[in-house]
Amino acid sequence: MTIIPFDDRDGWIWMDGHFVPWRDAKVHVLTHGLHYGSCVFEGERLYNGKIFKLTEHTRRLFRSAEILEMEIPYTVEEIDAACVETVARMGFTDAYVRPVAWRGPEQMGVAAQATKTHVAIAAWEWPSYFDPETKRRGIRMMHAPYARPAPNAAPTEAKAAGLYMICTLSKHAAERAGYADAMMLDYRGYVAEATGANIFFVKDGVIHTPLADCFLNGLTRQTVIDLARSRGFDVIERHIQPEEMTGFTECFITGSAAEVTPVAEIGDYRFTPGNISLSLMDDYSQLVRGKLVVEA
Q1: What is the pLDDT of residues 190-202, one digit of tens each?
Q2: pTM of the model
Q3: Fewer CB in a 10 Å sphere around the end CB: N or C, the chain?
Q4: Residues acting as catalytic residues
């Protein structure tokens, strides 16, 4: 597969209030966000010309920035409008959208009081995160070598760039071993999430998912919980011990990129994509394309 570098593409990127040619959307090598991880972002999906839950994503971007003591110099409405204009300029109807905010090069060092917060929005075409056939069969996952940190050790409520390095390392380890992804535990040893997606399990028709108290409570996670409950499924949010996976029959992960993806294997544990996983995968696909309405 040929990979097109992200710095060498045609198109436009919204950057600090203006559209610039894709290849000219650059930052200085001494940008604070590059050296110290002072950067927050969102991952959004455009379906049939509409960004799914756009305002919810933008509000989370602002909340993440607030947690990192960064002040975004725009309103939620302005960022929403910029996202819409970006995908329109690119001519996309189905795409991935990436708003990102970071501390600039105005000050270099651990302290960053003098830096400005810069914002950019890019969009690109991105098919399913996992091959459609593989999704229905269920992906294979291994156990991650890293754990999610405690809330008093990192700003775990923020979608912050620095928190993803252990995800990158865990994903690399999984791919080198022939797996699609890795399941991370939290700092207490409970099941947490995949490297870029939340995780769910099924036992006796009941859905169980880890309590999001030290990792991101994903917007897709929240959406799928609503979908499940609208179908009459019970959803229990709780701490899950790794050994409990022996008793679960189904497993799936959720995220803006992963959408709803069944899991067939996590290390020595086996699952069979069944009615709940596959129905929620299909329901989510219908919902994001405007073909399904969920009653509040």
Answers
A1: 999 999 999 999 9
A2: 0.95
A3: N
A4: 159
